[in-house]
Amino acid sequence: MFFRRIGDFRIDHDETQEQIAELLMCQREVYRRYEKGIREIEVCSY
Q: Which of 20, 28, 35, 42 is spaced 20 to 30 A from 11 at the CA atom?
């Protein structure tokens, strides 16, 4: 499942949820929900 992989990736690279949220330009709580699988990551296609 994708949400588990993003959490593992973050931990493997010694990043905090706050740091990843900043890179994604979202709030930490939103990122936390992505990582937990509570919220799906929105993907835009143009």
A: 42
